[in-house]
Design brief:
Layout: H1 3-20, H2 31-35, E1 47-61, E2 64-77, E3 87-95, E4 98-99, E5 101-113, E6 116-121, E7 127-131, E8 136-142, E9 151-160, E10 168-169, E11 176-185, E12 189-196, E13 204-215, E14 230-247, E15 265-275, E16 279-282, H3 287-296, H4 301-305, H5 307-317, H6 324-338, E17 340-341, H7 353-359, E18 361-362, H8 364-377, E19 381-387, E20 405-412, E21 415-419, E22 439-443, E23 449-453, E24 460-470, E25 476-484, H9 486-498, H10 501-512, E26 516-523, E27 532-540, E28 545-547, E29 550-553, E30 575-576, E31 581-590, E32 595-599, E33 604-607, E34 613-622, E35 625-634, E36 638-639, H11 644-658, E37 662-666
Parallel strand pairs: 1-11, 17-18, 24-31
Antiparallel strand pairs: 1-2, 2-9, 3-4, 3-8, 5-6, 5-9, 7-8, 10-15, 11-14, 12-15, 13-14, 15-16, 19-20, 19-22, 20-21, 22-23, 24-25, 25-27, 26-27, 28-29, 29-37, 30-36, 31-35, 32-37, 33-34, 34-35
Helix pairs in contact: 6-8
Length: 667
């Protein structure tokens, strides 16, 4: 190859590179981007993040340093449903007189008008500040003149006195075309980082020169001693640089505990700081140290160990049952009756169990720690269990903020039974759904901690029995009985507590597509030791399809599965059913006189591997009546991602089978 050819190739490569390079400078958008109607990587997107950049670094100040984060974001609005992305929320933290500040706020809206770019800039009136709570405030930016096809962008800088690095949120609810982040930390700061989510994230890591002044007294971390030692020295900072393209949107999926647990992101935790004179201060914790700190607190461990008040209380209860399970159940029911939950979460008491008892009102900790203390006084091996609720998410590092809830555990016959006495509707051994999440930390001493699954192994059953009379005019008259057990019964009771009877019946009519409901009644609604049983009669004016001499009808009528909840070909999150569940349905159909069966769907019996679930469909004719039985089982609260396609196929086959029709023909 000649020198001339080599030069030609290099020049051609440079021209292509320049042509393909995207200019992400603030205020510069292309007419082509404005004219685009869809995002080629995701035609379903309501909007797309064209560019998102973030730079976080430590900046020297006279009294020490602050953490600076610079943000620039640009979004293309593709559909009317995406107009909400023209509003940006900036959340700021404050504590003990110190607060995060935001500055250099600018924003633009770009529209295409008659082949030209029309610019509208953010005005001061479009910036609204709100105080949310003692520790939080926010600033809302509402970009002007937003419509479908607009490109909006904003830029701002956050200055924080707190020594932390906010999470890098890589994956959003809409796709991202380009993401860039640069995190620079001083040489003497050590951070742990963890990457979560399915998207592959590999930062470029290197060192660069910087100069930092460190003042120990300015630290916002409780475990650091106060000092006035400052440090000025040229050092090498540690840099993690993220440059990613074509990040898919995080799609909402059915049966997910908390979608935030699976969002692709990078989480940082301050591990240690090396101060002048080689003094090293560690901030990272182990779960053992977390438990020790919580257990030794006057607002936790001492509450359980304060037995004088409990001893006096036990004498007055006079429980004489000999069965361990009955005694524990009686104690549990006593605490439920006596105490009322004020709606506050947390694992620390606010006023202590003695005062909470005297007022019959307390937070989560005051009620469930009182239960633990009382059970112990009756001789049980009872312990508190720290929980991270479903809305709170899974802790990424051992920390005091890793949990937000506490329940009780009592060991009977070598089995840990989990209890929550905060709601009158909670039955013995049945936890509310918000507490059925991840794993709990059972604390049996200052340093002893046992990981315990919070998901129940007990099967939750929903059984439906229907007797239906099919009339010649295609109308249906029937009677339905539905039985709910365990968590399903708890869910029914809570819904009944919040919804009026008439409103619930209207919901049934709308959901099941019924024309009339009468004779509605519920048994055992207040007796939480028994299943809930619901009865009602119904009528449907046109419940079948009549064509000539034939009648076509679905074997399960309004009970059939109408869509597959698992639409995506791939799944990123485990399938979380919360608890094992069995759905059994028995339908008896009375055929009208003058008709006989022409064809019936064929029976089927399908199973998931390792006994995780199954689907049975059986149908038969007896004395000109049709009997249909289905049994759908999910035997595990959690189905791993690796079994997603098998589960999806099972639902698909169930959907197909329940959509097959019975054909009757006139004799």
């Amino acid at each position: 190859m000649t020198i001339k050819n080599i030069v030609f190739i290099i020049i051609t490569f440079l021209i292509i590179s320049i042509t393909n390079a995207q200019d992400y400078s603030f205020g510069k958008v292309s007419l082509d981007d404005l004219k685009n109607k869809t995002y080629d990587k995701d035609s379903t997107a309501n909007a797309v993040i064209l560019h998102k950049s973030r730079k976080t670094y430590f900046k020297e100040k006279l009294d020490g340093y602050v953490v600076i984060t610079e943000i620039h974001e640009r979004i293309k609005i593709l559909r009317e449903e995406g107009l909400g992305y023209g509003v940006k929320e900036i959340v700021l933290y404050k504590e003990e007189g110190d607060r995060e500040l935001v500055s250099y706020i600018i924003g633009n809206t770009f529209n295409e008008e008659q082949g030209e770019i029309k610019l509208n800039s953010l005005k001061q009136k479009d910036v609204l500040k709100n105080e949310l709570s003692k520790n939080w405030s926010n600033i809302l930016l509402t970009l002007p003149n937003i419509k479908v096809g607009s490109i909006v962008e904003w830029s701002y800088t956050i200055s924080s006195p707190f020594w932390r690095i906010d999470d890098l949120i890589i994956q959003e609810n809409i796709p991202t075309a380009h993401y860039y982040a640069k995190i620079t930390t001083p040489f003497n700061f050590s951070f742990n980082s963890v990457t979560k989510g399915p998207f592959k994230i590999s930062p470029r890591e290197y060192k660069e020169l910087n100069k930092l002044k460190v003042n120990k007294k300015q630290s916002k971390h409780k475990n650091q001693n106060s000092s006035i030692k400052n440090s000025f020295r040229p050092t090498k900072g540690f840099v993690s640089e993220y440059n990613l393209k074509n990040i898919p949107a995080l799609k909402e999926e059915h049966y997910v505990d908390n979608i935030e647990n699976y969002r692709s992101s990078v989480i940082f935790q301050l591990k240690s700081i090396e101060f002048p004179y080689n003094e090293l201060v560690n901030y990272s914790m182990s779960w053992e140290s977390v438990v020790k700190n919580i257990s030794k607190s006057k607002r936790f461990g001492k509450q359980i160990r304060s037995t004088k008040f409990i001893k006096e209380l036990v004498k007055g209860l006079n429980i004489i049952d000999t069965s361990q399970i009955k005694i524990a159940n009686t104690v549990f029911n006593y605490v439920k009756r006596k105490m009322n939950w004020n709606g506050h979460y947390g694992y620390f008491t606010d006023k202590g169990i003695v005062k909470a008892y005297s007022q019959s009102l307390g937070n989560i900790a005051e009620i469930n720690l009182f239960l633990v203390a009382l059970l112990r006084q009756f001789g049980f091996d009872a312990n508190p269990v720290l929980v991270s609720t479903r809305d709170y998410g899974v802790p990424n590092f051992p920390s005091l903020e890793g949990f937000n809830y506490v329940i009780a555990s009592v060991k009977i016959d070598k089995t840990d039974i989990l209890l929550d006495a905060t709601d009158k509707l909670h039955a013995f051994g049945i936890l509310p759904e918000h507490a059925l999440h991840w794993k709990g930390a059972l604390i049996s001493g200052h340093k002893r901690i046992k990981e315990i699954s919070l998901y129940p192994k007990t099967i939750n059953k929903k059984s439906i029995v229907i007797s239906v009379k099919l009339n010649k005019d295609g109308s249906l008259e029937g009677r339905q009985r539905t039985t709910f057990t365990n968590n399903m019964a708890l869910k029914y009771r809570k819904n009944a507590k919040q919804t009026s009877k008439n409103a619930y019946i209207r919901t049934l009519v709308d959901t099941l597509k019924l024309d009339q409901i009468h004779g509605f009644e519920v048994k055992n609604l207040l007796d939480i030791t028994k299943p809930v049983i619901e009865y009602f009669s119904f009528k449907i004016y046109k419940g079948v399809e009549i064509t000539g001499n034939e009648i076509n009808l679905f074997p399960l009528f309004f009970l059939r599965l109408k869509s597959n909840p698992f639409q995506f070909e791939k799944r990123t999150a485990p399938i979380n059913f919360t608890y094992p569940r069995h759905l059994k349905q028995m339908i008896n159909i009375e055929i009208p006189e003058g008709y006989k069966i022409k064809s019936l769907p064929k029976p089927i019996n399908l199973s998931l591997p390792n006994g995780m679930g199954s689907f049975l469909f059986n149908i038969s004719e007896i004395d000109n009546k049709i009997s249909v039985v289905t049994n759908f089982k999910i035997n595990s609260a959690i189905i791993p991602v690796k079994n997603y396609l098998e589960l999806r196929t099972l639902f698909l086959q169930r959907l197909k089978k329940e959509s097959e029709k019975i054909v009757l023909i006139k004799i």
